[in-house]
Design brief:
This protein has 210 residues and is α/β, with parallel strands linked by helices. Helix content is 34%, strand content 24%. The protein starts with 6 loop residues before the first strand and ends with a strand.
C-alpha cells in the first residue's frame, strides 16, 4: 500500500530563522516536507539553515518590484513552482497582501510572540512586543500561532501557549522564555495541519485529538 505523500510546505523568514529550524527539526520529512525557504533579506541566516538541510533557499528582492502586491505575486510564483500547499511565516516581517491571502486561504500560518489579541497588530514585532509586555507589567506572556488574513495578526487563532513571567524578568528574559515556547508550538501546529487534524469554521479553529 502506497503511503500518503507529505504535505509540501514553503517557509518565509526575514532573520536568523530559529523558528524555521524548529520546523525543520520537528516537521521536515516527518509529517511534512519543506520544499522551499524564501527570504526578503539576502543575508538572512534562515537561508543558510535551509541550505544546510538540503532545502532550496530563495532570496526575493522587493526593490525589483513596483509595490507590495507585485512583490507578493513573485513570492506566490516561487511557492507554486515548489508545489507548496501550506505557507509558514517564521519571523517574516513583510506585509501579506490580498492576492497572497486569496491564493492560500487558511493555508498561511504565522507565529506571534504574545497572546493575541494583546500586543499585536502594526508595530508589534520582535523585541517591541516584549518591551510592551514588560512595560505593561504583565505576569504572563506567550506565543500564538494563527492563520493569516489581510489584517496584521488578526486571522483565526489555531493554538496558544502561556508563559509565566517572573517579577525580575527583563524584556530580553521574556523574549528568551517566549522563544522557547515558540519552538515547541510552531512545529506542533504545522504537524497537526499536515496530518489533517485542523479545522476552521469562521474564527473558530479546532484540532482533532491524536
Amino acid at each position: 500500500m502506497k503511503s500518503k505523500a507529505l504535505m509540501k510546505i514553503g517557509v518565509l523568514a526575514s532573520g536568523g530563522g530559529t523558528d524555521l529550524q524548529s520546523v525543520i527539526d520537528g516537521v521536515h520529512q516527518k509529517t511534512g516536507e519543506i520544499t522551499v525557504v524564501i527570504s526578503n533579506k539576502a543575508g538572512a541566516y534562515a537561508l543558510e539553515r535551509a541550505k544546510k538541510a538540503g532545502i532550496p533557499a530563495v532570496f526575493v528582492d522587493e526593490k525589483k518590484y513596483s509595490g507590495p502586491e507585485a512583490f507578493n505575486q513573485q513570492i506566490i510564483e516561487v511557492l507554486e513552482a515548489h508545489g507548496c500547499e501550506l505557507v509558514v511565516l517564521a519571523g517574516y516581517l513583510k506585509i501579506i497582501t490580498k492576492n497572497f491571502v486569496d491564493r492560500y486561504p487558511n493555508r498561511i500560518v504565522n507565529i506571534h510572540p504574545a497572546l493575541i489579541p494583546s500586543f499585536c497588530g502594526p508595530g508589534y514585532y520582535g523585541m517591541h512586543v516584549h518591551e510592551a509586555v514588560y512595560n505593561y507589567g504583565c505576569k504572563v506572556s506567550g506565543a500564538t500561532v494563527h492563520f493569516v488574513n489581510e489584517e496584521a495578526d488578526a486571522g483565526p487563532i489555531i493554538a496558544q501557549r502561556a508563559v509565566p513571567l517572573a517579577d525580575s524578568d527583563r524584556p530580553e528574559d521574556i523574549q528568551k522564555k517566549v522563544l522557547e515556547e515558540e519552538h515547541r508550538l510552531l512545529p506542533w501546529v504545522v504537524s497537526q495541519i499536515c496530518l489533517g487534524r485542523v479545522h476552521v469554521d469562521g474564527r473558530r479553529v479546532t484540532i482533532d485529538q491524536a
